[in-house]
Write a structure and sequence with these properties.
This protein is α/β, with parallel strands linked by helices. α1 crosses α7, α2 packs parallel to α3 and α3 packs parallel to α4. The structure holds nicotinamide-adenine-dinucleotide. Nicotinamide-adenine-dinucleotide binds next to α1 and α5. It is an enzyme of class 1 (oxidoreductase).
């Protein structure tokens, strides 16, 4: 049996670290040729096209250089994103602008540059990285949640616009995942071990999500065998969004 992404080309934004790196690894393991679009060098085996998703010229050039290198583009994974902490009063105008530019407009820029190439593919998909914060009210995440709610709405609108062109658009919504990002957050806490326990307890399965689990969900949605999955938001959150458990005795 041939690998399911054999012959296909993928770009993964934010593929230098955490969830994006796991996605790039899995797509490559399953046969795709992968370009990582990131501000940072991925320091792995993937082809790196330096890219700041907040900058249109940078995105256009990275997508074009991917197509120049590999000759086509089939799979886009819009994963790059940054965090923001605080309630609605805590973030400056500059932080609001920066988070929006990376987390939301960044996905639109990459999609805009990729669409002409995706239209030529018979296995085209875009998968955006949403979050449990897209749908659940989390404390001290007002700005971040606003951007991730926008990712969910954007995903559905994009899916409607492009389904008849044969381009499937979906998103994945992880719970708290064990990545360098969350590691940085824990280090800032007064008691990192207690903070980690609190984050684990918040998820019904009692642990953090792994980057590899999120990658498998992205691969499912990108897999051309799953063409009937369109405009969906696939949670990978240990039940955090859907379940209401009684407290443990
Ligand atoms: P991470 O910080 O480990 O990796 C993020 C990557 O994005 C880095 O390689 C970084 O260099 C890159 N990046 C940042 N700004 C960029 C820009 N302007 N242009 C290009 N690349 C840029 O983070 P992660 O935890 O792997 O998160 C990845 C995605 O998953 C984000 O969209 C995040 O919102 C989402 N997410 C994470 C969690 C979690 O708990 N870790 C939960 C839900 C959703």
């Amino acid at each position: 049996m041939s690998a399911r992404f054999e012959g296909l080309v993928a770009v993964v934004t934010g593929g230098a670290s955490g969830i994006g790196a796991a996605i790039a690894d899995l797509l490559a393991e399953e046969g795709a040729r992968v370009a990582v679009l990131d501000i940072d060098d991925p320091k792995n085996q993937h082809s790196w096209h330096k890219c700041d998703v907040a900058d249109s010229a940078s995105v256009n050039s990275a997508v074009q250089s991917t197509v120049n290198q590999f000759g086509r583009l089939d799979i886009v994974v819009n994963n790059a994103g940054i965090g923001a902490q605080g309630n609605v009063a805590d973030n400056s105008d500059e932080e609001w602008t920066r988070s929006w530019e990376i987390n939301v407009a960044g996905m639109a820029r990459v999609a805009r540059a990729a669409l002409p190439h995706l239209k030529k593919s018979n296995a085209a998909s875009i998968t955006n990285m949403a979050s449990i914060a897209s749908t659940a009210g989390l404390q001290q995440r007002a700005l971040y949640s606003a951007t991730k709610g926008a990712v969910l709405a954007l995903t559905r609108a994009m899916a409607a616009d492009h389904v008849r062109e044969g381009i499937r658009v979906n998103c994945v919504a992880p719970g708290t995942a064990d990545t360098p990002w969350v590691g940085r957050l824990l280090q800032q806490a007064d008691d990192p071990a207690a903070e980690r326990l609190a984050l684990e307890a918040r998820q019904p399965h009692g642990r953090l999500v792994s980057a590899e689990e999120v990658a498998r969900a992205v691969a499912y949605l990108a897999d051309p065998a799953n063409r009937s999955s369109v405009g969906v938001c696939l949670p990978v959150d240990g039940g955090m969004e859907a379940l209401r458990l009684r407290p443990q005795q």
